[in-house]
Design goal:
It is built from seven helices and six strands; from the N terminus they run αβαααβββββααα. The chain is α+β, with helices and mostly antiparallel strands. The protein has one domain. A four-stranded mixed sheet has the order 2-5-1-6. Strands 3-4 form a two-stranded antiparallel sheet. Helix 1 crosses helix 7 and helix 2 packs antiparallel against helix 4.
């Protein structure tokens, strides 16, 4: 009996290692596929990123006022966009006007902060919104930087217009903006494996950064 126990212990360790390796391989495979899906998704959306001057209560309240004005202008502008390319072109042509709208709202609130509006590739973490979730990655973003831009920021998706869509309306709004059924399923959690897939994406990104570093 002692010999059998002694022989069984190494086998259990080997089995455990094999199981871990298979699990890691499955996670990496899932991550590779999820990474491709994420990149395709990122090519179809424009995010909104509003940065407050600071974390003070007043600056955070101002951030939301500016957000509302910029969002109103941007969504009205993008209502006639059929895809991300059109949305980007319209936004680039309207940056000065969006900046003027933001500056007017800041002045109306009694502040003299400068404001900058730009379209820029920006790194985002995995983020949950009402009715959908977006995986971590680099996305084109309409960025509104108020003053020092040192406060907590506000994120959403300005194209397709998901910022103001009710949770039940997110799938229809997303598909109208060019997302596929599979992509809508992924971001709206209809794909029950979305948590694992998003975590796999983050693992892939961390491994890539380590090897590139």
């Amino acid at each position: 009996m002692r010999m059998k126990t002694a022989e069984t212990a190494p086998r259990k360790r080997v089995l455990l290692r094999v199981t871990i390796l298979l699990g890691l391989a499955a996670l990496l495979l899932t991550g590779g596929m999820a990474l491709q899906a994420r990149d395709q998704l990122a090519d179809k959306v424009v995010r909104l990123h509003v940065l407050a001057n600071s974390d003070s209560e007043e600056d955070q309240a101002l951030k939301l006022r500016v957000r509302d004005k910029v969002l109103e202008r941007a969504e009205g502008l993008l209502a006639r966009s059929a895809d991300r390319a059109e949305a980007e072109a319209l936004l680039r042509g309207d940056l000065l006007e969006l900046e003027r709208v933001a500056a007017e709202e800041i002045a109306a609130a009694g502040y003299d902060y400068p404001v900058r509006v730009e379209l820029k590739e920006t790194v985002f973490p995995t983020r949950e919104y009402e009715g959908f979730t977006l995986p971590a990655g680099t996305y084109l973003a309409l960025r509104v930087i108020i003053g020092e831009g040192g406060g907590q920021n506000w994120w959403c998706v300005v194209f397709p217009p998901l910022c103001t869509a009710a949770a039940a309306d997110v799938p229809a709004a997303a598909m109208a903006g060019g997302l596929s059924e599979e992509e809508v399923s992924l971001i709206t959690e209809e794909d029950r494996g979305y948590v694992l897939k998003f975590k796999a994406v983050e693992l892939w990104e961390a491994l890539r950064e380590r090897f590139e570093g």
